[in-house]
Write a structure and sequence with these properties.
heterodimer; A: alpha/beta; eight-stranded mixed β-sheet; two-stranded antiparallel ribbon; 6 helices; 35% helix; 21% strand; B: mainly alpha; Non-ribosomal Peptide Synthetase Peptidyl Carrier Protein, Chain A; globular
């Protein structure tokens, strides 16, 4: 029978944060770092499908909540990118993680774990994520008769929290994300979609689920991702 | 590592539309200049449009200003391709 993913937790800053895990008895243990904000929701089913496929490869997987997101008790408004980085280091340590697979903006949240083994799917810099979110706010404001452009929104973010696509983003998170470039690490494998023209170590078939209007899955892509992670981890 | 491959503006717009709408390559190949977008495709809401603009910026190495974006731009596939072609020559 196929195992069912179960919630475990990790401790960070006196809070217990939830972490979905599967096949936790294996010695090969990968932490899947989700994309940020809406992209996380749109890709969650795909990520859990990756976990199921990894189990078939006898690899244990952990999908942590970032503090301030999902069921976390911590307010997002009081959370910075550096908190996510510290939290994921704590999670990796507490669950004896051997390898890290990060997706999209999730790569920014493990960028300080320089000596770890990184598998990175379609990384994106923080400013790009913020730009998309600011654009949705600009569009919504326009419908409400307000004319506030991207530059003005970015200026406002420096002085106080900004609500972007339903997320209350504090000044520190905005500033840190805006400056966060795609990390370059010693042991990394950059994975891109075949439809992507940006540089990478390998291309896999699939679709950019983070662009979809609604959450969706792509079982072939999840299987290809798990296959590539398994080959990268090795025996 | 493989280097970045140059995309034509039309190919980039087609690829992004395919990703947003979840279409097959064959389906999106049928898009013509007259294919209607905003209003005709319910998936293309303001969130999707925001993602589309950022993704085009990223894939074509362009910057799109707020005041360049209006309803007309998303009326048809042809309008969007023409806009992308104009931006890459700027």
């Amino acid at each position: 029978m196929t195992a069912i993913p179960a919630f475990v937790s990790y401790e960070f800053a006196d809070c217990k944060e939830l972490c979905l895990s599967l096949a936790a008895q294996s010695g090969r243990r990968v932490m899947l770092v989700p994309p940020l904000f809406d992209e996380m929701n749109r890709m969650r089913k795909m990520l859990v499908d990756v976990m199921r496929s990894l189990e078939a490869h006898e690899i244990a997987s952990f999908l942590p909540n970032l503090p301030g997101t999902n069921e976390s008790l911590r307010p997002l408004e009081q959370t910075m990118l550096s908190d996510w980085q510290k939290a994921l280091e704590a999670c990796a340590q507490q669950h004896q993680i051997s390898h890290i697979a990060s997706f999209r903006g999730g790569a920014l949240a493990v960028a300080e774990m320089k000596t770890a083994n990184h598998w990175i799917f379609s990384p994106v810099k923080g400013a790009t994520i913020l730009r998309t979110m600011m654009r949705t706010k600009v569009a919504a404001d326009r419908e409400a008769g307000l004319n506030i452009g991207l530059a003005e929104l970015a200026a406002r973010a420096k002085t106080g929290p900004l609500e972007l696509a339903g997320n209350i983003i504090g000044s520190d998170l905005f500033t840190q994300l805006n400056a966060a470039e795609i990390p370059s690490m010693d042991n990394q494998r950059i994975v891109r979609l075949k439809s992507d023209n940006k540089p990478g170590d390998v291309q896999i078939p699939g679709t950019a689920l983070w662009l979809r209007a609604e959450p969706d899955d792509d079982l072939d892509m999840s299987a290809a991702i798990a296959q590539d992670i398994a080959a990268w981890i090795g025996q | 590592m493989q280097n970045k491959v140059e995309l034509t503006p039309e190919a980039a717009v087609r690829a992004v539309m395919r990703d947003i709408l979840g279409l097959s390559e064959e389906q999106v190949a049928e898009f013509t200049a007259e294919t209607e977008l905003f209003g005709a495709l319910p998936e293309l809401d303001s969130m999707a449009v925001a993602g589309l603009l950022t993704e085009l910026e990223d894939r074509l190495d362009i910057m799109i200003d707020d005041d360049e974006v209006d309803g007309e731009l998303f009326e048809t596939f042809g309008n969007l391709v023409a806009f992308a072609e104009m931006k890459v020559t700027e």
